[in-house]
Amino acid sequence: MIEVKNVSYVYSAGTPFEVKALDDVSFTIGEGEFIGLIGHTGSGKSTLVNIISGIVKPTSGQVLIDNIDITNQKSVTRALKGKIGLVFQYPEYQLFEETVYKDIAFGPKNIGVPDSEIDDRVKEALKTVGLSEDILNKSPFELSGGQKRRVAIAGILSMKPKILILDEPTAGLDPGGRDEILGRIKELHSDYSITVILVSHSMEDVAKICEKVIVMSQGKILKYSYLDEVFKDSEELRENGLSVPEITTIMQKLKSLGLDVRDDIFRIEDAKEEILKILKGGEDQ
Ligand SMILES: Nc1ncnc2c1ncn2[C@@H]1O[C@H](COP(=O)(O)OP(=O)(O)OP(=O)(O)O)[C@@H](O)[C@H]1O
Ligand SMILES: [Mg+2]
Predict the structure, then answer these.
(1) How far apart are CA 13 and CA 248, in angstroms?
(2) pLDDT above 60: residue 47
(3) Is the CB of 39 under 6 A from ligand 1?
(4) Is the predicted pLDDT of residue 266 greater than 60, yes or no?
(5) Class for the domain spanning 2-241
(6) pLDDT digit string, tens, across residues 8-44
(7) Residue scoring higher pLDDT (174 or 59)
(8) Whose Cα sits closest to atom 1 in ligand 1?
């Protein structure tokens, strides 16, 4: 379980460039949940996930992972070793080893996984992100953008984290690559019941795979609820520079035009079913 308690974060405190990136944020994420973290650019998403991962210390407040206070300096490394995996925003810039193999093996080696297990870990992670083994001896710099992104994700998966945090994992990828990576993350979540936090700008992506959403605005939590609850108030989201998925807008419009459809729909398949129901109803009359 992840408990974030009254966390605030200030960049460049005491200088003219001071920015309050997080302002008294509190929430809880249960084990095995799949959470979307959305918000306008600069709303504090990356700062928040860096703090949850223990990479950055909050200016004030606490983060507890399975009842262990990770903001307490001493316990941090032991408690977190391999438990939380964070895939940074634009992780491909952090590939640095001479081969893909070494890059994916780096994490597990670093947390003390025995050498005899490393090979299996590397191959399994590679498979999970949908890459074949002939890539292992290449330099990460020879790869395409999408491949680099997958290698970077594999480098986190090879540590087998219980909590997987991905900061904009699909940013800048083409729609095909985006859907494939999202599909793999969804599979990981259902196969291994890990907790996932997916940071995204895209309501469509979040609607496709998450169960609950945290909406951030200017360093605060604006909403934290199940998808239908969050998308119900599209006006409030728009006021905060966010939109609901396109299909939700369409259903809301159909309803306002007098059609008897549900307007709390955010997935294409559900919309299709709802519209077919209306069409069939029309035939019966
Ligand atoms: N290293 C830094 N130094 C100073 N200010 C920073 C730094 N990093 C972030 N900020 C500021 O803190 C606030 C929150 O930034 P953060 O990167 O957490 O937002 P974000 O929601 O992840 O944005 P994006 O969607 O663009 O990735 C912003 O106002 C940003 O300008
Ligand atoms: Mg960010």
Answers:
(1) 41
(2) yes
(3) yes
(4) yes
(5) alpha beta
(6) 999 999 999 999 999 999 999 999 999 999 998 999 9
(7) 59
(8) 11
Helix/strand/coil for 94: helix
**279 alpha carbon to ligand 2 midpoint, in Å?**
43
DSSP 129: T
Report the distance separating Cα 4 and Cα 155, nearest Å. Answer: 26
- Minimum CA distance residue for ligand 1 atom 18: 44
What does the pLDDT look like over 142-165, one tens digit per residue? 998 889 989 999 999 999 999 999
- Every domain of the chain and the residues it spans: 2-241, 245-285
Q: What is the pLDDT of residue 77?
A: 64
User: In what side-by-side order are the strands of the sheet with 34-39?
Assistant: 84-87, 163-167, 195-200, 34-39, 212-217, 220-226
Is the CB of residue 216 less than 8 Å from the CB of residue 38?
A: yes
CA 46 to centroid of ligand 1, rounded, Å: 7
CA distances from 61 to 4, 11, 18, 65 (A): 8, 15, 18, 14
Ligand 1 mean position, distance from CA 109 (Å)? 31
CB-based contact 219:43 (threshold 8 Å)? yes
Neighbours of 98 (CB within 10 A): 12
Alpha-carbon distances, residue 168 vs 86, 99, 254 (angstroms): 11, 24, 32
Contact between 184 and 36 (Cβ < 8 Å): no
* Ligand 1 atom nearest to 48, measured from its CA: 18
8 A C-beta contact, residue 145 and residue 92 = yes
Residue 96 Cβ < 6 Å to ligand 1: no
Which residues, chain by chain, have CB under 5 Å from ion ligand 2? Answer: 45-46, 89
Structure tokens at 283: 């035939």
Token pair of 242 as six digits: 């966010």
